[in-house]
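Appendix B, Record 12. Input sequence as logged:
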Amino acid sequence: MALYIVGHKIPDSDSICSAIAVAYLKNRQGIEAIACKQGDINPETTFILDKFGLDTPITKNSFAGVDTFITDTTDLTLCPDDIMDANVIGVVDHHKLGDLTTSTPLEAWIRPVGCSNTIVKEMFDFYGVEIPKDIAGIMLCAILSDTVIFKSPTCTKADTKAVKELAEIAGIENPKELGIEMFKIKSEVEGTSIRDLVKRDFKDFNMNGTKVGIGQLEVVDLSVFDSMKDDLMKDLEALKVEGDRHSVLLLLTDIMKEGSELLISSNDESKIEEAFNQKPKDSKMWLDGVLSRKKQIVPFLEKVFK
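Logged structural output:
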């Protein structure tokens, strides 16, 4: 029986690239493994896979009764809906420990670093498996994406070390230039529907029984959103109602200014005000220095929802 490697819902580059890399590793270990995804890939991930000549993983949404390895999450809300009926034999993740549980022991790689692919690099090193050029390329791109080209507070020495070593394997002379190229792809929003933008990098979080959705769009210049903020706000409200969420937030992150504008649709904005010690103006606020949803947004919201 094949082992299926899958990341979180609404996959980002880390989720997709880690699934591909772990599948390659497991196949080299003599285990038939298949990389898969739970949804469509975003433009940045498409760029990465095209650049290094790798196929998009298959789409698979049911895992009941099959061997499964989860990457880039341990939260039930982000795992496949039937994950509790799957045979989860492993996880690799760089987020907080979530609520996924298993009935048998599993292989678990969880580290406080900026990207799951940094940990996957450690897995290759631990097992003594050589990383091919194309796999190294997508792994380093995922790290550059998740660490916002090393600017994110989540970035660690392990991440920068991994990129340096992966760049040598992949033949990338200037990883930062490649990172800027990737973020320019992220900044291309023209022709994309408002709903697709809001859901491009969107995650639901269970905060002590309260459902909060948080999206993030990272660009090199926030002015690309000037003409669409009203429409973005309307869609946040629609998503809140459709998903019976308490709040839906959207981070518009400017990687050059190193900060984010937070758009808010909430049943109680005072919770958001308390979390960030700032009163929203027209359901918006500027968060200077905020680049990371994982480290600079989610923990502060979780405190006020306890």
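The two ends are 42 Å apart (CA to CA).
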